[in-house]
């Protein structure tokens, strides 16, 4: 693994960019549209995360990555539901392609030091808190990379289809990783470009960073309410959380 050639240390800190990915569908939720645009307490699911990231001190711009078919929905979010200016772009066929396209969209500003850090978030996690997003940004700037996670209790790795793995396994070492995931912008851009050349496909942003950089990736404690909406019951649960906690989109 090699350190990014793009990165140039500077006394002047740039801004962070929030990248919100909305490339999913509504199939498993049972909806006819992308789940990111389903309503949650009067606003689209996507608008919650966008407004939260945009409210974090140090985040200077937001990139909203959507499918070509969802551009009209995205423009509605930008004009009616977002408290911040959105740069809307279309993504690729996979999550990783969409992330790469978002990073390329920012490449000139990354090269010139205008953007120093990126926070990459799933639109389907609407209830991420301001505090968690801010903590990930702070940790990413300190360490080079950071992810939120919750220790996975009652989970053990397997060694083949019929046996548990033995040896140095520690339950404390397993995390349920969430988003936003934060990284030094220049380093993660180079990592994604190299992954594209190699045809490498990771499970998330951190896996690509682990494969192609030597930056340390730290973790901050995530939140149980920062769950991903995948099924219809998840959307019902999100509505219950909003009601119980008196939450509102920033």
Describe this structure as you would to a colleague.
It comes from Brachybacterium rhamnosum. The protein has 250 residues and is an alpha/beta fold. It has one domain (15-240): Spore Coat Polysaccharide Biosynthesis Protein SpsA, Chain A (Alpha-Beta Complex), CATH 3.90.550.10. Helices cover 35% and strands 21% of the residues. It contains eight helices and ten strands. The protein has helices at 45-54, 71-81, 95-105, 107-111, 130-143, 185-198, 205-212, 232-245; strands at residues 15-22, 39-40, 43-44, 59-66, 86-90, 115-122, 145-151, 175-177, 181-184, 217-221. Strands 1, 4, 5, 6, 7, 8, 9 and 10 form an eight-stranded mixed β-sheet that branches. It has a two-stranded antiparallel sheet with strand order 2-3. Strand 4 (59-66), helix 2 (71-81) and strand 5 (86-90) form a beta-alpha-beta unit. Helix 6 (185-198) packs across helix 7 (205-212). The N and C termini lie far apart (39 Å). Residues 1-5, 7-11 and 164-171 have low confidence and may be disordered.
Keywords:
single chain; 250 residues; alpha/beta; eight-stranded mixed beta sheet; two-stranded antiparallel ribbon; 8 helices; 35% helix; nucleotidyltransferase activity; nucleotidyltransferase; Nucleotide-diphossugar_trans; 2-C-methyl-D-erythritol 4-phosphate cytidylyltransferase
Task: Please write out the topology.
Blueprint: E1 15-22, E2 39-40, E3 43-44, H1 45-54, E4 59-66, H2 71-81, E5 86-90, H3 95-105, H4 107-111, E6 115-122, H5 130-143, E7 145-151, E8 175-177, E9 181-184, H6 185-198, H7 205-212, E10 217-221, H8 232-245
Parallel strand pairs: 1-4, 1-6, 4-5, 7-10
Antiparallel strand pairs: 2-3, 6-9, 7-8, 7-9
Helix pairs in contact: 3-6, 6-7
